[in-house]
Amino acid sequence: MKRNVLLLFILFSYLLACSAGPVAAKPSITADTTYYDVDTGLYLLKGNVRVEVGSRIITAGQAKVSLSSMEVWGSDGITLTQDTIYLTADSVYVYGTQHKAVLSGGVTLSQPDITITADTADYNWRTKLGTFTGNVQVTQGTNTWSADSVTYNTKTGTLE
């Protein structure tokens, strides 16, 4: 069991490393239940899933993790907070080898100067670009507008 938790620590710290530099802090992962399914090769985390790495906190109702393909499926209310970024979605699929995450269902990104809502979002943590699509609403200061798609750079805080 301790070995399984250690492997999850390592995987989550790699897959969810969306900050500019390497992760210095040891990740902490908790869930109400953790189970390894030998038949599928998936770790199953259920109930109050929480991953904390430095200033980054990710929560979900449940998650599945594949160490072999470096993929994570999370659902039931995804949240990510880090510094001034606050992100929510119904679900997330992380392609670890591609450094990409796909969020869907009521996606909202909030920072002090901008809020973006959309049906879906793709985020590449190498480029720091998030592309929001479907019913996109952007609020900056007192201005609000709609778009089919917007791309936001989380490093520079600019729309591209």
Q: Can you walk through the features of this model?
A:
This protein has 160 residues and is mainly beta. It has one domain (2-159): lipopolysaccharide transport protein A fold, CATH 2.60.450.10. It has one helix spanning 2-15; strands spanning 28-30, 33-37, 42-53, 56-66, 71-82, 85-95, 100-111, 114-124, 129-140, 143-153, 158-159. Strands 1, 2, 3, 4, 5, 6, 7, 8, 9, 10 and 11 form an 11-stranded antiparallel β-sheet that branches. The chain is elongated and about 50 Å long. The termini are far apart. Residues 1-11 and 13-24 have low confidence and may be disordered. Residues 115-155 form the Organic solvent tolerance-like N-terminal domain. This is LPS-assembly protein LptD. InterPro entries: LPS_export_LptA, OstA-like_N. It comes from Sporomusa silvacetica DSM 10669.
Summed up, what is this model?
Residues 1-25 form the signal peptide. The protein has one helix at residues 2-15, and strands at 28-30, 33-37, 42-53, 56-66, 71-82, 85-95, 100-111, 114-124, 129-140, 143-153, 158-159.
Question: How do the strands and helices of this protein lay out in sequence?
Answer:
Blueprint: H1 2-15, E1 28-30, E2 33-37, E3 42-53, E4 56-66, E5 71-82, E6 85-95, E7 100-111, E8 114-124, E9 129-140, E10 143-153, E11 158-159
Antiparallel strand pairs: 1-3, 2-3, 3-4, 4-5, 5-6, 6-7, 7-8, 8-9, 9-10, 10-11
Signal peptide: 1-25
Pfam family, one: LptD_N
Organism: Sporomusa silvacetica DSM 10669
